Amino acid sequence: MTYAALVLAAGRASRFGSDKLSALLDGEPLLFHAIRAARAAPVSRVIVVARPGLDVGEWPDGPPVEVVRIESEALSQSLKAGIAAAAGSEGVFVFLGDMPRVPLGVAAVLFGRIADSVAALPRHQGRPGHPALLSARLFPEIASLSGDEGAGRLLRSRADVAFVEVDDPAILLDVDRPEDLRAIQDGSRPIR
């Protein structure tokens, strides 16, 4: 089976006030943490969908990191661009560039649960998180998305989604504002 990982990183981060994906966390850009989690997934390649000029780093060894540049900030456009770049894959893991603490082993657990489902999602205390594993069977429906919506709306109405309960709340933890980044750095960020 061939799967790809998508790291969505094309947004402008207006609430952050500056380039949040380049902001440092543990001494390296926030985005690099998401790329590292994507490379730990059971995939043959990693595709970073990024806005022009965003540094995605150098990643020797392991799955190759490819970059797709788009001008649009819309989540739906990022997802569509990533899926187009992953043509021929049986599915994609979707990571978000502003989620730096996703546990490295979660993707492998999702992979073990996808089977006949169109998607597998981690869930913490009843709340679905990331990464999401989407089967290629869902790609035609994703093509109909628009604006700043991801696959969540499509998945909420389906019975054929596998959920994996995860103890770690980091599957819900994203960075929207500078104070979020500081709180993640010191371990005090509550899950909203």
Briefly summarize what is shown.
The chain is of the alpha/beta class and 192 residues long. The protein is built from 6 helices and 10 strands.
Describe what this molecule looks like in 3D.
There is one protein chain. The chain contains six helices and ten strands, in the order βββαββαβαβββααβα. The chain has a single domain (3-186), classed as Spore Coat Polysaccharide Biosynthesis Protein SpsA, Chain A (Alpha-Beta Complex). The protein is globular and about 40 Å long. It is of the alpha/beta class and 192 residues long. The strands form two sheets. Strands 1, 4, 5, 6, 7, 8, 9 and 10 form an eight-stranded mixed beta sheet that branches. It has helices at 30-39, 75-85, 106-113, 139-142, 152-156, 178-186, and strands at 3-9, 24-25, 28-29, 45-50, 65-69, 91-96, 119-124, 127-128, 132-135, 161-165.
Tag the structure with descriptive keywords.
single chain, 192 residues, alpha/beta, Spore Coat Polysaccharide Biosynthesis Protein SpsA, Chain A, two-stranded antiparallel ribbon, 6 helices, 10 strands, 23% strand
Average of per-residue pLDDT values = 91
Tally of DSSP helical segments: 6
Strand element count = 10
What is the CATH level 1 assignment?
Answer: Alpha Beta
CATH architecture: Alpha-Beta Complex
How are the secondary structure elements laid out?
Layout: E1 3-9, E2 24-25, E3 28-29, H1 30-39, E4 45-50, E5 65-69, H2 75-85, E6 91-96, H3 106-113, E7 119-124, E8 127-128, E9 132-135, H4 139-142, H5 152-156, E10 161-165, H6 178-186
Parallel strand pairs: 1-4, 1-6, 4-5, 7-10
Antiparallel strand pairs: 2-3, 6-9, 7-8, 7-9
